[in-house]
Amino acid sequence: MLRFFVVLGLTLASGAASAADIPEYRLVIQNHVYQPTELKVPADTKFKLVIENRDATPEEFESNEFNREKIVLPNSSASVFIGPLKHGSYRFFGDFHQDTAQGRLIVD
Amino acid sequence: MPGVALLVFREVLEAALIISIVCAATRGVSRRGLYVVGGIGLGLAGASLVALGAGVIAGLASGSGQELLNAGVLLAAVAMIGWHVVWMSRHARELARHMNAVGQAVKAGSSSLTLLLAVVALAVLREGSEVVLFLYSMAMGGIGAGGLAGGIALGVSGGALLGSALYYGLLRIPMKHFFGVTNVMLVLLAAGLASTAARFLLQANRLPALGEQLWDTSWLFSNGSLAGKTLGILVGYDASPSGIQLVSYAITLLVLLGGMRWVGRPAPVRDERVVAAAPLQAPS
């Protein structure tokens, strides 16, 4: 039993890799629009996405296709860890301004 | 206004489905309405506090405060639902010979009513804080008071309507099976919440994925669709889950079902009728 927990602990520790080994990508929200609207990221790679909100209003970065949601407060940044994702194009949006805040992750 | 109505509807629906299940599970308990309304009130107050403190929360735990708070709230709800169903199964057996099904449930239900009130409060808090931030964002964006109020009214009534539809649908289940069904629904709800908690921890890189995108059933129900969202709350549906979500789901199912079975097992008495009545019962 003890061994099980030791193994589990090691698996958890190694699985949640330290943030330093993880590539970082950036998105900017300005006037409720994502820049860039299409962001290229590598396939089968876990990465960190930093979203900077330059608007005076809060936004929620959200995707149903890669299952992430995070509130990004006015004039601040937030980050989420994503993937590894398979090849493809994945839609994301700003939940609070869906008519303009639309974008795609191009996983290649 | 349609945008406001839609977002409010989505968030209210998630909370309303949970409240409906809790209401059904406490059917017949006296002063239940008071507890549920109290839970909603507490949840709304909590939601406003969370929204006000969003800046502080966002900065905690090196930027993972939001995820840790969400996961914490979800896991607290899982623990409370778990306690309730295990408690129910213990007392259902004790009282079985003396009372009818309703009486049992009332007795069992009232003692964990406070826990279920907390589940209602937590559900409202989680969905509500997002609504508050959204409405703030809309108000800043210069939407008129009329559009805002109309959107809120439409969204809240739509969500509440679907929630009550579930509640009144559940009431049609025959009494003999009623609490069996609500218990199963509570267990599935808890397992789904645990899976969502795991997703938040994964998003914050606090848990290993154990495999991303294990399958994809978004062609059937996407996570964003009404059906997908509803199933997401009721049974923990996720169109493209990660391994850690499945593990959390399975652990919750096993612990709750195992706990119910173990606590509700027949006492070791030499009662011929009990033995004769359940000759095929699997060993627990």
UniProtKB/TrEMBL annotation, chain A:
What InterPro entries does the entry give?
A: Cupredoxin, EfeO_Cupredoxin
EfeO-type cupredoxin-like domain location is: 5-107
Provide the leader sequence positions. 1-19
Keywords assigned by UniProt, alphabetized: Signal
State what protein this is by name.
EfeO-type cupredoxin-like domain-containing protein
UniProtKB/TrEMBL annotation, chain B:
Q: How does the protein associate with the membrane?
A: Multi-pass membrane protein
Recorded GO terms, molecular function?
ferrous iron transmembrane transporter activity
Domain of life where this protein originates: Bacteria
- The transmembrane segments are 33-62, 68-87, 108-125, 145-171, 178-202, 244-263
Task: Give the main location.
Answer: membrane
Query: Which cellular compartments is it found in?
Result: Membrane
User: What Gene Ontology terms describe where this protein resides (cellular component)?
Assistant: high-affinity iron permease complex
Record keywords: Membrane, Transmembrane, Transmembrane helix
Q: Which Pfam families match?
A: FTR1
Database matches in PANTHER family: IRON TRANSPORTER FTH1, PLASMA MEMBRANE IRON PERMEASE
The family note in this entry says: Belongs to the oxidase-dependent Fe transporter (OFeT) (TC 9.A.10.1) family.
Q: Please state what the protein is called.
A: Iron permease
What organism is the protein native to?
Answer: Rhodanobacter lindaniclasticus
